[in-house]
Amino acid sequence: MEMEKNMANGTPAGMNVVVSRVNRSARCRCCLWMVALWCAATVIFMLAGYDSVVHSVAVNQMVLRQGGQKYESWVDTPVPVYYKVYVFNLTNPKQFMEGARPRVQERGPYVYLMKETKEEIEFHSNGSVTYRTKPLYFFQPEMSNGAEEDILVTVNIPFVNAADAVKDQGFFRMVIQMAKKIHGFETVRTLTVGELLWGHKSRVMEWARQLQELPYPHQLFGLLVGFNDSIQEPYTMHTGKGDAAKMNQILSWNGRQRLDFWSGDKCNEIRGTDANGFAPGVTKEDRLYIFNGQLCRAIPLVFNDTVMQSGIAAYRFVPPDDVFAYGTNFPENACYCSGSGCPPSGILDMKPCYWGASVGFSFPHFYKGDPKLRHMVLGLK
Ligand SMILES: *[C@@H]1O[C@H](CO)[C@@H](O)[C@H](O)[C@H]1NC(C)=O
Ligand SMILES: *[C@@H]1O[C@H](CO)[C@@H](O)[C@H](O)[C@H]1NC(C)=O
Ligand SMILES: *[C@@H]1O[C@H](CO)[C@@H](O)[C@H](O)[C@H]1NC(C)=O
Ligand SMILES: *[C@@H]1O[C@H](CO)[C@@H](O)[C@H](O)[C@H]1NC(C)=O
After folding, report:
1. Rounded CA gap, 255 and 231, in Å?
2. Which residues contact 90 (CB under 8 A, 6 or more apart)?
3. Which ligand is nearest to the CA of 227?
4. Parallel, antiparallel or unpaired: strands 250-253 and 360-361
5. Rounded Cα distance, 116 and 74, in Å
6. What are all long-range contacts of 117-122, with beta carbons under 8 Å and residues at least 24 apart?
7. Average pLDDT of the chain?
8. In angstroms, rounded to a whole number, what is the distance separating the alpha carbons of residues 73 and 115?
9. Which of 304, 323, 365 to mutate to test the pocket of ligand 4 (most atoms within 8 A of CB)?
10. Residue 300: C-alpha distances to residues 198, 263, 290, 318, 329 (Å)
């Protein structure tokens, strides 16, 4: 839409060029074929010139500036964004506790409408802008398969984390085993979907807090705690002013131009855009990057297909199959491994950026991951 509107605006300027050239060539009376040749040359030049005029007008309109065409929809996205959550219900808790492989059943989607606004917006004279996002999530019962009150049997994440953190330290392991007996901590527990996502009281965390200060910054424990109605870390982004090729590039996050989670410079690079836009002129050969603080890294995207979107041909970009692959064939991912080695292919170990918690990131059902992962859990496909 924006593109079309810009092109219409560009037309009058292009037409003026045509008219003045034709008038001048009409004054040439030497011989007809020279006029014809001159006109043909003019037309070719004009077409080329016209195209680049339209292009530069359009690109200029796409630069983000206060009060500009793009600004309102950038601050408060008018397009509804739906956030779909699927969860796994552990269906054999008793056997699992006795050493059997976990068997899970996928439930959902639990659908949320996400409305994100941008706040604390500050434009800098060098063509960048700093902002913070504030997302709001609203449950959509009619789009969901289930309710936030649905009961789930799931792993007690804080307890498993605590146990995992001390598994090689005999003394602390004993302390946790004793606390488990005294306080009745459980490895598997029952929670509602809402509690799992948006927070619940964790007795394990409360107990641990009495002993030491925890790096976990929230009182309640939940997978999405701290994301609803709360302002996120600041991003600084290039607006495209002065250099359209840099449009939407994230320059820094949370005041840092580099990350320090990973073991190599390449992995610690903040590169790419926030995924809401890319510099004009994307080609099928491009390797695009998106950066998101929640993922703690930049994710590459490669061309997958040409698709029709509301009658407009569009390129679909997807993460490459090997985005979470390790081993000698994927040396560029080695810096996502830690001193204790690489996780199985298909998993990004989030421990370095999730307060030391045993949390991993993967495609759903370990898609494209090491087949042994799928065999460790029954019920995946
Ligand atoms: C522009 O200035 C801002 C604020 O001083 C700074 O954070 C940002 O890194 C600068 N960007 C570039 C590309 O130098
Ligand atoms: C998110 O916060 C808003 C505003 O405080 C609230 O209305 C909404 O119910 C919250 N969403 C969830 C999923 O808790
Ligand atoms: C999860 O499993 C428990 C126990 O089998 C069951 O009561 C509960 O309804 C299941 N939850 C969902 C969302 O299917
Ligand atoms: C696009 O993705 C589909 C589904 O994963 C895959 O089968 C296909 O090979 C991909 N095409 C290209 C050109 O990468």
Report:
1. 15
2. 96, 102, 103, 104, 152, 153, 154, 155, 188
3. 2
4. unpaired
5. 10
6. 117/75, 117/76, 118/74, 118/75, 118/76, 119/231, 120/231, 120/234, 121/75
7. 84
8. 12
9. 304
10. 29, 18, 7, 8, 17
> What pLDDT is attached to residue 38?
54
Residue ranges lining ligand 3, Cβ < 6 Å: 89, 91, 107, 146, 150-153
Q: Would you say the CB of residue 305 lies under 6 angstroms from ligand 4?
A: yes
93: pLDDT strictly greater than 90 = yes
* pLDDT at residue 280 is higher than 50: yes
User: How far, in Å, is the centroid of ligand 2 from the Cα of 136?
Assistant: 6
The residue to mutate among 84, 110, 138, having the most atoms of ligand 2 within 8 angstroms of its beta carbon, is: 138
What is the per-residue pLDDT for 4?
25
Which among 234, 263, 232 is positioned nearest to 251, based on CA atoms? 234
pLDDT in tens, 189-231: 999 999 999 999 998 888 888 888 888 888 999 999 999 999 9
Q: pLDDT tens for residues 49-66? A: 556 676 777 788 788 988
Q: Is the pLDDT of residue 13 over 50?
A: no
Largest interatomic CA distance in the chain: 106
For 138-166, the pLDDT digits (tens) are 999 999 999 999 999 999 988 888 887 77
The token pair that represents 90 in the structure block: 């552990």
Distances (CA, A) of 339 to 155, 260, 293, 335: 27, 15, 23, 10
Is there a contact between 101 and 91 (Cβ–Cβ < 8 Å)?
no
Closest CA to 66 of 116, 118, 114, 115: 118
Give the other-Cβ count within 10 Å of 317's Cβ: 20
Residue 141's Cβ-count burial label (10 Å; 0-12, 13-18, 19+) is exposed
d(CA 288, CA 194): 35
C-alpha dist (Å) from residue 265 to 35, 128, 147, 255, 271: 61, 24, 44, 17, 12
Place of tokens 């983000």: 64
Q: CA gyration radius for the chain?
A: 28
Atom of ligand 4 lying closest to residue 316 CA:
1
CA distance 376 to 10: 60
